[in-house]
Design brief:
Number of helices: 1
Distance between the termini: 47 Å
Pfam family, one: Gp80
Radius of gyration: 19 Å
Strand content: 35-45%
InterPro entries: Gp80-like
Order of helices and strands: EEEEEEEEEEEEEEHEE
Length: 192
Amino acid sequence: MPFFVGFMGLVSGGPSALADEVSAGGYARLPVSFTSPGDGRRTVAVSSAYSFGLATEDWGLVTGLALYATLTPGGSPVATWSVQPVTVSAGHTYTVPVGALSLLIETQQVFAEGDVLGVSAEGAGIIAGQTLSVVDGVVIPVCGGDSDSGSLTIAQLNTALVQLMQSLPQDDPGDGQSLWVNSNLLAISQKS
């Protein structure tokens, strides 16, 4: 089963988690598919080479890659990560470095926007651009990315709840706001 099937885009002008998607002439997101030969604890997601361009305008300094669920510009990326910065001028193309297409992903976990979900072979942290879950080596965006609404199947919801319960502390943190597990039941912390 593939880790992710969707679209890859380029970000420019700063750190990948904060930078904007390239929008100049000749740029378009590319269809992408990452396979996932995982070991049950981590997923190694790999993809073949991709080349963007021919740029008809300057794209600026490309600083990262982003995965998107749709081809339509806008919306939150599923994930972003940095690449060696390269300036793409009119008349040039951008080929994604091979090391940037090999991703080591933590599995069986729910990630909030901004969480690090793994690293690329080049050592760049892969940042969740929206809430998502990695289940059996497959990334599942919890929301569609283009809005604040989304839907989960019963199986996906069950998996997300199991992952949540497994990640919570077993003792009351005493801060009055945290969730914790009390005798296999979900509890809200009480202020001491």
